[in-house]
Write a structure and sequence with these properties.
Elements: E1 3-8, H1 20-25, H2 27-40, H3 44-50, H4 53-56, H5 59-79, E2 86-89, H6 93-100, H7 106-123, E3 129-135, H8 139-149, E4 155-162, E5 165-171, H9 172-184, E6 189-192, H10 205-217, E7 226-227, H11 239-249, H12 256-265, E8 268-274, H13 279-290, E9 296-300, H14 303-316
Parallel strand pairs: 1-2, 1-8, 2-7, 8-9
Antiparallel strand pairs: 3-5, 3-6, 4-5
Length: about 325
C-alpha cells in the first residue's frame, strides 16, 4: 500500500440528515457538533440533521454544516487509528483539510466559513450570476466557448474537476452563451448548477477582501500534514501561504484535477473522501483512469462506508 490522502467535499455535497448516524454512534462526533453549536451560537446540528432544506442550502449555513459533518466523521476515523499523508479539499473542503492539519482550530474555522458563505453570497446579488458544469469537452474547445462569451460579460473557469468535467462561472447572459457554445462544440452535457452565486470567479473578489480581514484575526499554526492548495495544486509551505491561498481561492479557479495528479505522482494510491456526498470519489476514479493508474477510493458519508474503510485498513495492516 502506498500513501493515503484524505479529501473533503465542498458546497453542493450537503443533504438533510448528514452526520446524524455518526452523532448517534460516536461520542467524539457528538463533541464536534456540540462545539460547532456553541461556537456559532446557532443550532447548526439541527440544520444538518433535520433541515429544513431551505435553511441547509443557505450558503452561510451550508459551509459550517459541511465542515462540522466532515470533521465529525474524520474524528471517528482517527479514533480507529486511520490517518493520512496528504489532505486536500474542494473549495470549502480546503478549510476542513487545514483543520485536519491543525493549521486552524475547529471553532475558528466554523466561524470563518460561516462568514465566507455570507460574503460570497453578498458579493453578487442573487439571480445575477451562476455556474454550469461542462462534461465531455476538451479544455481547448471550452476555452474558445468562454472567450466568445466574454464579449457579453464576465464568465470564467471555476473548477477543473476531472478530465471530463470543468465548471464555468459568471454573469447570467455570458454564462448562457458559453453553455450553448459548448454544446455546439461537442460537449456531451452542459448543466446549470443549483447555486446562488458565481463562485470562483473574479466577481467574488469583494468576498476575498472581506475574508482577508477575518483571516488577519485568526491564529494560523504550522501545518502538521501536507495540504494541497486549490489555487496552486501543490503543498502549502507556510502560514502566510495558508492565508493568501484562501483569499485567492474565493475568486480563482479550483485546480482539483491537478491537485489529485500531484498526489498520485507522489505515491498516493488510496483516497478517502470524508464528509457528505461522493462526487470527489467519482472525480478521482476518472482522473486515475485517464492516467492508467490503479487507486483505492472510498467515500465515507455513512456508518456502513465507515466500516468498509476500517476493514480495508485492518486487512492492509
Amino acid at each position: 500500500m502506498g500513501k493515503v490522502a484524505f479529501v473533503f467535499p465542498g458546497q453542493g455535497a450537503q443533504f438533510v440528515g448528514m452526520g446524524k448516524d455518526f452523532y448517534e454512534e460516536f461520542s467524539i462526533c457528538r463533541e464536534v457538533f456540540e462545539d460547532a453549536n456553541e461556537s456559532l451560537g446557532i443550532d447548526i446540528k439541527s440544520v444538518c440533521f433535520e433541515g429544513p432544506e431551505e435553511e441547509l442550502i443557505r450558503t452561510e449555513n451550508t459551509q459550517p454544516a459541511i465542515l462540522a459533518t466532515s470533521i465529525a466523521i474524520l474524528r471517528a476515523l482517527e479514533e480507529r487509528g486511520i490517518n493520512c499523508d496528504y489532505a486536500a479539499g474542494l473549495s470549502l473542503g480546503e478549510y476542513t483539510a487545514l483543520v485536519e492539519a491543525e493549521a486552524f482550530e475547529f471553532c475558528d474555522a466554523v466561524h470563518l466559513v460561516k462568514n465566507r458563505g455570507r460574503y460570497m453570497q453578498e458579493a453578487v446579488p442573487e439571480g445575477k450570476g451562476g455556474m454550469a458544469a461542462i462534461l465531455g469537452l476538451e479544455k481547448s474547445k471550452l476555452m474558445k466557448a468562454v472567450e466568445k462569451a466574454k464579449d457579453y460579460g464576465v464568465v470564467e473557469i471555476a473548477n477543473y474537476n476531472s478530465p471530463e468535467q470543468i465548471v464555468i462561472s459568471g454573469e447570467v447572459e455570458p454564462l448562457e452563451i458559453a453553455v450553448n457554445e459548448s454544446k455546439e462544440l461537442g460537449a456531451k452535457k452542459a448543466v446549470k448548477l443549483p447555486v446562488s452565486a458565481p463562485f470562483h470567479s473574479s466577481l467574488l473578489k469583494p468576498a476575498g477582501d472581506k475574508l482577508e480581514k477575518d483571516l488577519d484575526k485568526v491564529k494560523i499554526n504550522d501545518l502538521k500534514k501536507v495540504v494541497i492548495s486549490n489555487v496552486a495544486a501543490k503543498p502549502v509551505k507556510t502560514r502566510e501561504e495558508v492565508r493568501s491561498n484562501l483569499i485567492r481561492q474565493v475568486s480563482n479557479s479550483v485546480l482539483w484535477c491537478d491537485s489529485i495528479i500531484y498526489m498520485m505522482d507522489n505515491e498516493v494510491d488510496t483516497f478517502i473522501e470524508i464528509g457528505p456526498g461522493k462526487s470527489l470519489k467519482g472525480f478521482i476514479k476518472r482522473i486515475a483512469k485517464s492516467l492508467n493508474k490503479k487507486v483505492n477510493t472510498f467515500s465515507v458519508n455513512s456508518i456502513s462506508e465507515f466500516e468498509k474503510v476500517c476493514d480495508f485498513f485492518n486487512r492492509e495492516v
